[in-house]
Design brief:
Elements lengths: L1 E5 L6 H4 L8 E4 L16 H6 L1 H12 L3 H13 L5 H19 L4 E3 L18 E3 L3 E5 L2 E6 L2 E2 L8 E2 L1 H11 L4 E4 L6 H4 E2 L4 E2 L4 H10 L3 E4 L9 E4 L2 E5 L3 H4 L3 E4 L1
Parallel strand pairs: 1-2, 2-3, 3-4, 6-9, 7-8, 9-12, 12-14
Antiparallel strand pairs: 1-15, 5-6, 10-11, 13-14
Helix pairs in contact: 3-4, 6-8
């Protein structure tokens, strides 16, 4: 069995269309939407609406962790547009989802990232794409569990939930051979982004499950430039499958 795994696609539909080549299945760990490309500020929903100069400023404020000022900037910019904020964002997200879901090979098993909008996925997921969140499947004789979304942060991205709700989804999986999530377990080397120079939120519930259940693999994304891309926790190999938007390369897993 050969499975390719991607995460943090962020609009890279071209490479996503090729990500399943040579594999029996594709697993996607979320963050399909590109709201703002931190490497190229001209790409994404935000610069399409407000221009690259404002995108530069927003990235500057967020990188400095001046989140209140970043939100104030956003409010001023939206107030200057003659459109409803939620309507404009949803229309842009729908355009991206139409292209990205069409690029998924069959079969694909996917869960949500923190920047995704779960309620829209049923409109785009075709019969070859199975969406899982707090659920598990059998794949090639192994049990694979999926936990989508992220934990609450000052960034207030679309799919952030409470620690308690997230832990309940992890608990619902039970024993699994492969634990798939969008965010990493709460380990400093796995949650620190060396370019953004900050810790992203990892899950204590995932870490506890890894220690208790001891899956063969724990696969995740979310942290684009991690201090450590992989490490062992007990007998479990923990792997950040990579920032697919920039690499265009899936992580290959065989058993």
């Amino acid at each position: 069995m050969r499975v390719h795994v991607v995460s943090d696609v962020h609009g890279n539909a071209g490479d996503l269309a090729k990500a399943g080549e040579g594999a029996d299945a594709l697993i996607c760990l979320g963050d399909l939407v590109l709201f703002l490309d931190y490497a190229d500020h001209s790409r994404g929903i935000f610069p399409d609406l407000f221009g690259t100069e404002n995108a530069d400023r927003l990235v500057e404020l967020r990188t400095a962790r001046r989140f209140d000022e970043a939100r104030d900037l956003g409010r001023r910019l939206w107030a200057g547009l003659d459109v409803d904020r939620d309507t404009a964002i949803e229309a842009a997200v729908r355009r991206q989802y139409a292209e990205l879901f069409a690029a998924f090979p069959t079969p694909t098993y996917a869960t949500y990232g923190n920047v995704d909008i779960p309620r829209l996925w049923p409109d785009f997921a075709g019969p070859g794409t199975t969406v899982l969140d707090g659920e598990r499947i059998e794949l090639g004789g192994l049990t694979v569990g999926f936990v989508g979304g992220g934990l609450r942060t000052p960034m207030r991205t679309p799919y952030e939930i409470s620690d308690e709700e997230y832990a309940a989804k992890v608990e619902a999986l039970g024993d699994v051979d492969i634990l798939c999530s969008h965010i990493p377990p709460d380990v400093p080397d796995l949650t620190y982004d060396t370019v953004a120079r900050r810790f992203e939120r990892g899950s204590r519930a995932l870490l506890d499950a890894i220690r208790r259940v001891r899956p063969r693999y724990a696969l995740f994304g979310h942290v684009h430039q991690p201090l450590a891309r992989r490490m062992r926790i007990g007998s479990t190999e923990c792997v950040n499958v990579g920032h697919f938007a920039s690499t265009g390369r899936p992580f290959a897993l065989e058993w």
